[in-house]
Amino acid sequence: MTPVLRAALWMTGAITAFSSMAVAGRMVSVELDTFELMLYRSLIGLGLVLAVGGTLGRLGEISRRQLGLHALRNVCHFTGQNLWFLALGLIPMAQVFALEFTSPIWVALLAPAILGERLTPTRALAAFIGFLGILLVARPNPAALEPGAMAAAAAAICFAGSALFTKRLTRSQSIVSILFWLTAMQTVLGLACAGIDGQIAWPSPAAWVPLTVIGLAGLTAHFCLTSALAVAPASIVMPLDFLRLPVIALVGMMLYDEPLDPLVLVGAAIILGANFLNLRGEVGRPRHAGQENRMAPRRTSR
User: Fold this and answer.
1) Given pLDDT bands bounded at 50, 70 and 90, which one contains residue 175?
2) Does residue 301 lie within any of the structural domains?
3) pTM check: above 0.85
4) Which of 30, 102, 108, 283 has the most CB atoms within 10 Å of its CB?
5) pLDDT at 121 over 50
6) What distance in Å separates the CA atoms of residue 12 and residue 251, rounded to the nearest whole number?
7) Nearest alpha-carbon partner for 14 in 299, 217, 251
8) Which domain holds residue 69?
9) How many domains, the chain?
């Protein structure tokens, strides 16, 4: 199995998990603010990492090396995730995801500087075509920018930074170590931000089910995303996430009666075409790049 195909399979799991998290996040957004939501999500995720990692005997892989890079990555993600949850409560899901999907554009443009990956003509063309599809779906109006749209757009930039720093971490850190510091650091950030006003709301019994889904889905999504980034270039992995757009558009229509605009389908088709172009170009490239991007959890665990 080629690295690109393996990454595509991992991203299928990430897409499912992220979509589940969006639905659960909207369910609890009326009861908890975004900082409280992130606090409980991170606490649940931390418990899962410790439980599963302990059961599998992999907690020894947790390393304190590169804590500065972990912190930088988690500040980017924490900020982006809060903005993302905020946008979910303000604008339709399809629009949130469409604006979020400008993130691969930032990844493709910044990867050469941060990761040393080459920006090939095929990657640049695929990113441009995908961006045109996003514009068709979102149809942003600069004269009347909504807070929700601005939050989703800013989240995309933060997610791009998180993805790039995650890719750098996969070169020397195991997935268990990355997920542990993800949940641990964001628990501290969530506690500090949620308690800044001196009040932290305790979830109602009904809210614990979606909160558990958020914690489990968030951890699963990052496990899949980190696994994909470990076997393929970031500028290839992130555009695969475009597939979330048609999925969440259908979810929004079925669960929340959000209109399924025909232009959403046209834009999604353009985005899928861009992904196909990107993947086809990568399959034809030499495989030596995939060898360079393999993660080294076994070296870390020894």
Assistant:
1) confident
2) no
3) no
4) 108
5) yes
6) 16
7) 217
8) 3-283
9) 1
Whole-number pLDDT of residue 233: 79
pLDDT of residue 290: 42
- Which of 186, 205, 202, 190 is closest to 32 using CA atoms? 202
> How confident is the model over 36-57, as pLDDT tens digits?
999 998 999 899 999 999 999 9
Is 302 contained in some domain?
no
Q: What is the pLDDT of residue 218?
A: 81
- Write the burial class of residue 172 (CB in 10 Å: 0-12 exposed, 13-18 middle, 19+ buried): middle
Mean pLDDT, the chain, rounded, equals 81
Residue 98 within a domain: yes
Q: Are 173 and 66 in contact (CB under 8 A)?
A: yes
- pLDDT for 297 equals 37
**Domain annotation covers residue 294:** no
pLDDT at 143: 56
